[in-house]
Amino acid sequence: MTNEKEKVQLRFLGAAGVVTGSKTLLQTVNYKILIDCGLFQGNKSERKLNKVKHLPFQPAELDAIIITHGHLDHCGYLPVLVKKGFRGPIYATAPTCDITETILHDSASIQEEDTREKNRRREQKGKKPVKPLYRSKHVDLTMELFQNCQENEWVQVKEDVKLRFQKSGHILGSASIELQCQNRTFIFSGDVGQQMPLILDAPHRFNSADYIIMESTYGDKLHDSSISPYQAIQDVVNQTFEKGGSLIIPSFAVERAQEIIMLLNNLMEEKSIPPLPIYLDSPMGKNVTQIFQKYRQWHNLTDTECDNLTQNVHVVSSFEETLQVLDADGPKQKIIIAGSGMVTGGRILYYLKQLVGDEKNTVLLVGHQSEGTRGHQLSSGAPSIRIDGDAYEVKAEVTQIGSLSAHGDQADLLWWLKPLKESPKQVFLNHGEPASANVLKGKIEEMHKSLKVTVAEMDRVYEV
Ligand SMILES: [Zn+2]
Asked: Rounded to two decimals, what is the model's pTM?
């Protein structure tokens, strides 16, 4: 029997039954360590969970935080804990540290702006003003606590706790965490990419572990692999060029924008598509591209491909430049890549206002489009979309590429788990809607008959 001193508890404080708000607490008699510290994003009831009163600990009690990658649903809650007293170390890979900094500053300024707007309305109703979840100054404080880690190098966190990061093929710097504690090995998968990511190394696979905490986002889906991303982009650019129109690509700033630019550059180089001017209009996309150029050992772009991410592209910084790109005097046919990826906000809205009503143009959606977003409306064939209160008729052709995804599908997740054979005592599935986690559980049990697989429940304490 495990004695009291050796007990380890796992508690899922987010990304259990949902895909946002990733936070897993690992607790021993001596320590409290948080793995990922994500913001709840989804609907209003999910966002309410961002209130600090829901946490089962005081932020100052935490001994350390470990971050798998720089997406907001994995790191976006860090400044709240810092604002409320956390001062311990935050461990992450070096590119994750840089991406987190740019994404948290963006998040802080969006929250400050939203709060200003909300308070204007509250004032009119005679209500007290509210505060944003955090401000830029809290992000600065957070960044001081980061400890950059190398890939595959053990880091001693506490006397009997050590960890190392291994690439997970999801976004630049993303990693799974191997953590040894109380003579047990835990693996936290973080978000796992496809077996053959476009511009990253394949996810690292582990051979042994006692406990695995694994994501299940696409546990019930297979990506469309009928057409390669190269072919799909080539076809859509050529078709749009023949119509005499422009191509508008709403894109996520991290990873997707760089993948698209690399594909376009290579296709132009081999003359498979015409040399249209490419505009990247996303301040965050620009920052992340610079992080790609800084950490060349963390992706598999050649030096030329990496340099060309900015050399062959017109990087738009200011809003005045956006207006210049839209100016009728500029090049008539062009390729525009702008945020946000699901058309919920950002500069893409200005381009769509002007270009979505012309049948010569094409809107290319390159990622998952959540329900309730303009991206989802476009992908479902909506005849018009509303932007800033006005309706815009959708006459441009709308097309979507299904094979570009930063997440592995069901086959990729099973491939990731396969070398572990019978060794783990238990697998916990998190970061997935209940349907996908349950389907994946069934598939894993089919593959490894003796393996205990548990779909993690929110806030429940698991003793291991
Ligand atoms: Zn992610």
From this structure: 0.92
